[in-house]
Amino acid sequence: MKSIFAHLEEINRRPEPFEFYTAEELWTEEHTSDQMLAYHLNTDINVSSRRGEFIDRSVEWIASRFGVGPGTRIADFGCGPGLYANRLAKLGARVTGIDFSKRSIKHARGVAVDQGLTIEYVNQNYLDFETQDRFDLILMIMCDFCALSPSHRMVMLTKFHSQLLPGGSVLLDVYSMNAFKQREAATSYGVNLLDGFWSAERYYGFLTTFKYDDAKVVLDKYTIVEAERTRTVYNWLQYFSPESLRSELEKAGFTQQELYADVAGTPFDEAASEFAVVANKG
């Protein structure tokens, strides 16, 4: 039986960048997926989704920038509860939304039915999503791209390129190097850490943050200790410069890249903590 010291050593062990991948814990576990959906639907905070006002402004810009209207074919990877997909469908777009969370997809489908919208919602890990459909526009919003390892990012970009129509575009946002500079290595502990986010039962939560200066990666490693189980969730975030993101997009065949401060079309700001890119299929 492990000693308490051995357990603490494991809690504080620094893995290699993207050594472990536990997205399923966030998006498919019953309690945490319920918590994530609640964050998505809170239009007053920037947690799982942007604030409602920003989403409205973002959709308005997307519609203008990409000429969204009847028949425009859009895929929203990591669509959550359909906050973008439903708005875009109201403009006449033919939207496909893909998300890992069964709870979020169920909510999105319900809203679409209530509003008389025809949207194809797919409950699947978007890394595995395949389709014969081809799209004018692909979205990956809320810095989802940053949570993927280099190999997974190439899988996604290759998938995006193959699923776009000629001349189609991808819009995604990422965390910047300015945001990376603001992150610090740290360790914290609490009873029911994050106000019960991780379990409906009493638990002890440990958060260890590791910063990888060479790889420009940060890991928030959560260890959740309950009476009957202990689990570890790895929340990886890759940070980008415009040059590093451009390089990955070019390797996947994307051209004519445009930079913005966000997915609402705000002009690019070198000092911002995020930025967005529009990349076109050559």
What does this protein structure show overall?
This protein has 282 residues and is α/β, with parallel strands linked by helices. It contains 10 helices and 11 strands. Strands 1, 2, 3, 4, 5, 6, 7, 8, 9, 10 and 11 form an 11-stranded mixed beta sheet that branches. Strand 7 and strand 8 form a beta hairpin. It starts with a helix and ends with a strand.
CATH architecture of the domain at 32-178 and 238-281: 3-Layer(aba) Sandwich
Could you spell the SSE succession in H and E letters? HHHHEHEHEEHEHEHEEEHEE
Number of H/I helices: 10
Number of strands: 11
- How much beta, percentage-wise? 25-35%
Per CATH, the superfamily of the domain at 32-178 and 238-281 is Vaccinia Virus protein VP39
The main pleated sheet reads as:
11 strands, mixed
Q: pLDDT average, as an integer?
A: 93
| CA-atom Rg in angstroms | 19 Å
Structural class estimated from helices and strands: alpha/beta
- CATH fold topology of the domain at 32-178 and 238-281: Rossmann fold
CATH class category name of the domain at 32-178 and 238-281: Alpha Beta
Percent of residues in helices comes to 25-40%
Distance between the termini: 58 Å
Name the shape in a single word.
globular
Low-confidence stretches: none
